Amino acid sequence: MRVSTGFESGRVDTLEIGKRRVVVAVPHDVAAPKFRQWFAFDVEADVGATAEIVVANAEACTWADAFGGEYRVYASDGDAWRRTDSKLDRGRLVVRHTFERPRVRLAYYPPYPSSRITALRKTVRAAGGIESTLGYTQAGRAIERLVLGSGDRSVWIVAQQHPGESMAGWFVEGLVSALCEGRAGARELLQKATLSIVPRMNPDGVALGNHRTNATGLDLNRVWASDDAPIEVASVRDTMKMTGAHFALDVHGDERLPWVFAQASDAYEGRPKSIGESIAAFEAAMVAATPDYQTEHKYPKGPGGPPNLAFCANWIQHQFGCAALTLEMPFSDHKKRPDPRGFFPARARRLGEKAIVGILAALDAQDVKTSVS
């Protein structure tokens, strides 16, 4: 048997390799010992062999309780990703796998590969859209922006600030494909708005196999108010100031919660009425468009007072006076709509397709006035 991680997002520590048993451990993010959650690795064995694959330190991970309940490790032997019959046993994640092919790839969640972003660029160009580079990371990787539409409303979609939340990439692919293919509401939205889509804000983190942070150990969704924010945030933030914003989604995944939902800043004294109206319209449209979206289960409300501007959505709302939401999807499954495949990539992609009607409803709800800084 053999364990390897020689691919984008591949990361695990190998502890033991036997004839029919492999033991690995989840490493912490590069430069950020606080975060330990992501794993992705290949195991090779003889076709027909059945092996036990053990993630030994699941209980030592940052969100250790995320591995219980309905969570299952994902696997692919070259075809579509599927959930294994993994189980949490005495703090270890245990997978029993019979090799139908000589190699299987196991992951916390199916990675969103750069090859698909390359395909998205081609799709955008073919539809008359624009691609641009906003800046380059410490490692020289491009921070890309895809632009679709010609309307006077400015909409921003940001994905994969947290590199391990790869369902955000699948969501963006669904959104971009639906816009370019003219799905329901697409033509109207593209006439009304100009959409700026950042499919991967943290390319270094993705390449390294980090879960939460960039190459220097920073959580990008905690530094939006910083004067010395890293290039990943600064380049997007500066471009937003040039375009303005009328609506924004920051797309994420939640390790623990088995729901799809969008979190807004808590209502506070002085918040423009138009923000609440746009949020309500977005949510109503999403509930009508897909049974996966729900509004009952979200994060608890904060203690009140002004929102924390270190968070992307809060900063955008404060800067432009528009509705800005953090969209969350589960790593495991949707509690009210369980599926043997879990909340698998095609499901995240479909949610992205349906987001068109939500964004359109949010823009229609109120003629939001913004100023470009």
What do these coordinates show?
This protein is α+β, with helices and mostly antiparallel strands and 373 residues long. Helices cover 27% and strands 24% of the residues. It has 2 domains: 106 residues, Sandwich (Immunoglobulin-like), CATH 2.60.40; 252 residues, Zn peptidases (Aminopeptidase). The chain has a 7-stranded mixed β-sheet with strand order 11-12-14-13-15-17-16, sandwiched between helices. Strands 1-4-10-6-7 form a 5-stranded antiparallel β-sheet, with no helix packed on it. A 5-stranded mixed β-sheet has the order 2-3-5-9-8, with no helix packed on it. The C terminus is likely disordered.
How is the secondary structure organized here?
Elements: E1 2-4, E2 13-17, E3 21-25, E4 40-44, E5 50-55, E6 74-76, E7 82-83, E8 87-89, E9 92-98, E10 103-107, H1 114-126, E11 130-136, E12 142-148, E13 153-159, H2 167-181, H3 186-192, E14 193-198, H4 203-208, H5 231-243, E15 247-254, E16 261-263, H6 273-289, H7 312-320, E17 323-330, H8 345-365
Parallel strand pairs: 3-5, 13-14, 13-15, 15-17
Antiparallel strand pairs: 1-4, 2-3, 4-10, 5-9, 6-7, 6-10, 8-9, 11-12, 12-14, 16-17
Helix pairs in contact: 1-2, 2-3, 2-8, 3-8, 6-8
Features:
single chain, 373 residues, alpha+beta, Immunoglobulin-like, 2 domains, 5-stranded antiparallel sheet, 8 helices, globular
Low-confidence blocks of residues: 368-373
Helix content: 25-40%
Q: State the domain count.
A: 2
The total strand number stands at 17
Tell me the CATH architecture of the largest domain: 3-Layer(aba) Sandwich
Question: Tally the helices: what do you get?
Answer: 8
Structural class: alpha+beta
CATH superfamily label of the largest domain: Zn peptidases
**Rg estimate, integer Å:** 21 Å
How is the main sheet built? 7 strands, mixed
Please give the CATH class of the largest domain. Alpha Beta
Please state the average pLDDT score.
96
Secondary-structure element sequence?
A: EEEEEEEEEEHEEEHHEHHEEHHEH
Distance between the termini: 58 Å
